[in-house]
């Protein structure tokens, strides 16, 4: 298969997912559809290396992750992170719900090692899945080593549609309040103003530089430089404490935006956001190549069981904590569900739902200000931070 044919096929799969999402008004998220099509493709005619063949090897995907996460930091502010303390508590409660349900009920249905291997990938991303997979392999549990990867790959199939349903319900409630003059847009990070009331020119640190020099390459350079600083910091502090450079990218993006080194959403302004999302999605779906039909049959029972029990525990805990914090049950469950997929799915699903609910730009702005920040914050708290910590602890139980 030639490179351009592979690329054309993969982009067609992403487009079909988008088209179905648009047609169903986000009731069926694009990521869910694309994931199913990738799975079927790998089971039929996709060569295993099709994503690399198309031009998205792991090195390119990692580069895009650095740029995207740093860019995502610019969508938040330090004040926004502080204001999302309720979101953080609810997201953590959802994870505790998964742990409680699987240790309380899951151990009655499956062996202890299966539950231990399942939890970190279920509440996290690729890093935690790899940690548990390698740990299981080292412990002489080859089936569970595959199970760790498969549960990471498949868990989103439960999370995508559930999140879409919850966000649509939340969005409809917010629109009703807005149309009844009971709700206004929250100030987004990009809406900072001077005391005169005039919008601040971005990036502020380069306000005196002529606009003609703020080229796409200059935006890419600043994003890459901030990403490098995050990586360098991760390396320097590694002897003391290990922190993923991707976590630091988010933090450094927030700081760079706050001090005026980066504008809001520079990747989009540099016309690179869509391409970066495409590359990252292809890399994520590349993980499905390991999910062969025979493996899926062998682990189907514990796979479905762990996901159903875990999501049920997540719902109960997030509902209780959300009620205590006076957050709607829909939003509370939605932010907890980010543990099943993280970025970029949390961003994509939220935007798809918002676009499906209204065509009015002001209403979209209101929905975005209320729904996107908590989804982004929750995704990073669960997938990037908590899940890796859990994996480091749980791998010792094998």
Estimated share of beta-strand residues:
under 5%
Morphology: globular
Helix content: over 70%
Radius of gyration: 21 Å
Protein name: Na+/glutamate symporter
InterPro entries: HDC-like
Keywords: Membrane, Transmembrane, Transmembrane helix
What is the fold's blueprint, element by element?
Blueprint: H1 3-23, H2 30-43, H3 50-53, H4 58-73, H5 78-83, H6 85-109, H7 112-122, H8 126-138, H9 142-179, H10 216-237, H11 245-259, H12 266-269, H13 273-285, H14 293-324, H15 329-337, H16 345-357, H17 361-394
List keywords for this structure.
transmembrane; membrane; globular; HDC-like; 398 residues; Na+/glutamate symporter; mainly alpha
Describe it.
Keywords: Membrane, Transmembrane, Transmembrane helix. This is Na+/glutamate symporter. The chain crosses the membrane at residues 29-46, 53-76, 88-110, 115-132, 144-167, 217-237, 270-288, 300-321, 333-355, 375-397. The chain is mostly helical and 398 residues long. Helix content is 73%, strand content 0%. Helix 6 (85-109) packs across helix 14 (293-324). It is globular and about 60 Å long.
Offer a quick outline of the entry.
This protein is mainly α and 398 residues long. It is 73% helix and 0% strand.
